[in-house]
Write a structure and sequence with these properties.
The protein is of the alpha+beta class. Helices cover 45% and strands 25% of the residues.
Amino acid sequence: MKREDETKILQFITKVQADMKTEEHGKQLKLLFSNPIPYGVSILLIITIGLPFDLPVVAVSGCILMTIFFLCKVQFQKFWKEMSIIFSSNGEDLTNLSKFYLENEKKRLFLIAEYNNHVIGTIAVRETEREGTGKLWRMFVDPSCRRMGIGSKLMKELFCAVQHLEYSSLELRTHETNTMAIEFYSRHGFRERKKTVFAEVFPCKLHAILFQKQLKQVETGF
């Protein structure tokens, strides 16, 4: 793999992850503002503090709502710091793609999709701690090229390419709000195996989902 090719791939991955991070930030903010707990606590405090002491309802309500808003902001910042690790571009493989995927004897694979000399998609496989199970990751498609079958073509090529790696199954992890990816993986034969808490700072919580697919000797039909 040429150095200029690695640079193009890294630039592509960095851009796509930045776009995903921005999109996810908006999703999490919407979830926070739709969470009934802060509103319930605010109403309870207004009733508990305002009514018994015959305080001005408007003033008490404003003060409490501002306090709850500030606390939620602080909590959300802590939560986002925990969960934004998902979008980090500092992975061990990204420091030297050729060395990590090609210049070793481990069962690793990295595929790209190109159009007009531009990278528009990537997918990779590496070993896990379990013998016979590979980890699918670095699955990215340019947002402007989605719904065009690029991801499916990459997945089909990967299923064929991993035959010589002797994996009996593949696994991957994604987060629960990444609904487009969950639908895509499910459509390609991956099944949910386990859900765990990835990041939690009250009142925010994010689950990570483990998916797994059993491989056949010859993958067809995609």
